[in-house]
Amino acid sequence: MWLRSDCAGGKGMYSRSRPIAYGLLVLVAFGTCILPALAETKARRTAPRKTLAVHARTPIRTVAKTGRTRGLHNAPTRKNSRKTSTLAGPQSSAPRQVGDLDSHPLLSVASQYVGRPYRFGAMGSAFDCSGLVHTAAAAAGLSLPRSAREQFRTGTPVRRDQLQPGDLVFFRTYRRDASHVGIYAGDGKFLHAARRSGGVRVDSLDHPYYAARYLGARRLSVGPYSSAPSS
Question: Do 184 and 217 contact (CB within 8 A), yes or no?
Answer without folding.
Answer: yes
